[in-house]
Amino acid sequence: MIHRISDKPIKPPRQALRPVHRPMTRVAAASLQLIPVGDTGNFTPSPARPVCVRSRSLLADTHFEPHSHAWAQLAYCATGVLQVTAESGTEGREISYIVPPSRAVWIAPGARHHVTVLEAAEFRTLYIDASATPPGWSGCRVLVVSPLLRESIHALDTSAIERPLTAPREQLLSGLVLDELAHADTQALGVPMPHPQTGDKRLRALCEAVLRSPAERATLAEWAAATGASERTVARLFRDELGLSYQQWRQQAILAHALPLLTRGQPVSAVAAASGYASDSAFSAMFKAAMGQPPSHFQSKNGL
After folding, report:
1. CATH of domain 14-27+197-300
2. CA 202, 205, 206, 207: dihedral to nearest 10 degrees?
3. pLDDT, tens digit, 9 for 90 and up, residues 249-285
4. Coil vs helix vs strand at 103
5. What is the pTM assigned to this prediction?
6. What is the enclosing helix (H) or strand (E) of 76?
7. 45: which strand partners?
8. Is the CB of residue 144 less than 8 Å from the CB of residue 187?
9. What angle do CA 293, 76, 187 make, to 5 degrees?
10. Fold of domain 30-187
11. How far apart are CA 43 and CA 45, in angstroms?
12. pLDDT higher than 90, residue 292
């Protein structure tokens, strides 16, 4: 099934519309191509075979329905862009991640999650036995994909090699993948979302609308009016349910939106405009304060 918070999704406040850019993250629910889950077959990991790689070529708007499994999963795409939404922590709160090829999302064993393809992708799913979970990894996280990790995943992908993978080589490559994962840099790029069942539906609808339209410069009062709630009520809901102010939450959403655009080599000026910033310098200052590096760093070192 597809999570639908309301029959009519919130539209951006009319007075804030700036129709210069169609956001990359906009996905119409009616156009989603659903992929059944549970057909892991020979890809189920075990302590003896802790890493299994599954490759699929997926069109934009492909959607994997919400599900969970006993093993961990690394969601990674060699090309394209994914949106991964997963439970985080014991409260069942969801976090949404935008995943370009230079990043991957670790999904903890048992965490309910769903995946939407935002741009046609070469999807690589790593199923990892729960016994191989690095110490202290209790939740989901965004990992930086190093060149060595990328090539190790490719070497483990039996669909991409001409000769069968021998058991000793598979064991060595699996150990290398697990070691690279344990030492990979992490980035706080998740966008927290209200709980799909118990969270406030007005807040979730507002969050989804902002994610669909990151270029809009509407105020919280304008977004709140579109939900039928007051600005004060929505501000309280952000604090109570997500533990962030609206501005803090929106910054996380902007970073998640901007990074894939930068990794594809788009000019900083275009990314700033697509993220709702009138000034390149203001966008760059915000980005560097949050990420520790200017936007150009992700173009030059992580571009594909």
Report:
1. 1.10.10.60
2. 120
3. 999 999 988 987 887 788 999 999 999 999 999 999 9
4. strand
5. 0.72
6. strand 72-88
7. none
8. yes
9. 30
10. Jelly Rolls (2.60.120)
11. 6
12. no
